[in-house]
Amino acid sequence: MSFRIQDCLAKATGRAKSDVANKLISMLLHEASRKVCNHYGVSVGDARYGDSVHATFANECCYCAQMLESDRAVVEHPEGMNRFRAGLHIPGNALISCKKCNNEKRRDDQKPSLTLATTGWESFLSHDSQRCPPDCKSCLYWSSKIPNLTNRVDHLRHAAHRIAEFQFGYADFVKAGQELRPVILSRLNSLYRECQEFATSKILESTESIFEKFDWGANS
Q1: Does residue 55 register a pLDDT over 70?
Q2: Which residues contact 148 (CB under 8 A, 6 or more apart)?
Q3: Separation CA 69–CA 75 (nearest Å)
Q4: 8 A C-beta contact, residue 77 and residue 84
Q5: I want to staple 94 with a disulfide (CB 3.0 to 4.6 A). Which of 27, 44, 59, 79 is the partner?
Q6: Which phi and psi (to 5°) does residue 10 adopt?
Q7: What is the pTM of this model?
C-alpha cells in the first residue's frame, strides 16, 4: 500500500510555524518586486507585458506547451518565489503554466541547492532521464508527458530556449533579480527562523491563555 493515512495525518501537525514564516517571506518578496517594478516603470500587471508573454507563448504552458484553460492555468515564476530561490514577481520572471507543471516544478524550487542547473526553471527542464537516478519523480513526470527520449530531449531544450529568449527582452529585470538574490536570500533565511520562533512562542502563549481557566493540567 503506497498511501498511508497516518503519514498524511501526521504531516499536518507541524505546518503552522512554516505556514506563518512562508507567508511573510512571500510578502517580503512581493514588496521587493514592487520596488524593482517601480524603478523600471513596468509591472507584471501591465497590458504591454501581458501582450509580450502572449506573443512568445500564445496560450500554451511555458513548460509542456499544452494549451491552457482558465481553470488549469496559474502564474508561474521560473525562479520560484520562496526562501530557496528568492525569485521576484517581475517582468521576465512571471509567465503562465499549467497547474501540473507548476506543481511538479516545486520539487526543484524547494531544494536548498540544485545540481542540474543554477535556476529552478532550468533544473526542471533538465530532467530528461539521462542524469538522474531511475526513481527521479521529475524525470518520470517528463517521460510520462513525452515517452520518446529523443522527442523529450528536444522539447525540453526548446522550452528552455524559449524562456531564455523571452527573458532576454527583460534583461534589466533579470539582472536586478540576480544581483538582489544573495542579499534577499540572506534576509529570507534569518526572517524564516525569526518567524518560526515568534510563531512558536505566540502560539504557546495564546494556547495557555485559552486553557488557563480549565484544570486540564500542564501536560494535557
Answers
A1: yes
A2: none
A3: 13
A4: no
A5: 44
A6: -65, -30
A7: 0.84
Residue boundaries of the structural domains of the chain: 43-169
- Residue 130's contacts (CB-CB under 8 Å, 6 or more residues apart) are 149, 153
Close Cβ partners of 11 (under 8 Å, ≥ 6 residues apart)? none
- Decide if 96 contacts 72 (C-beta within 8 A): no
Closest CA to 95 of 123, 134, 68, 126: 68
Q: Are 197 and 17 in contact (CB under 8 A)?
A: no
Residue 108 in contact with residue 120, Cβ under 8 Å?
A: yes
Q: What is the pLDDT of residues 203-220, one digit of tens each?
A: 888 888 888 878 775 555
The cell for 91 is 517582468
Closest CA to 186 of 91, 111, 86, 88: 86
Q: Is the pLDDT of residue 31 over 80?
A: yes
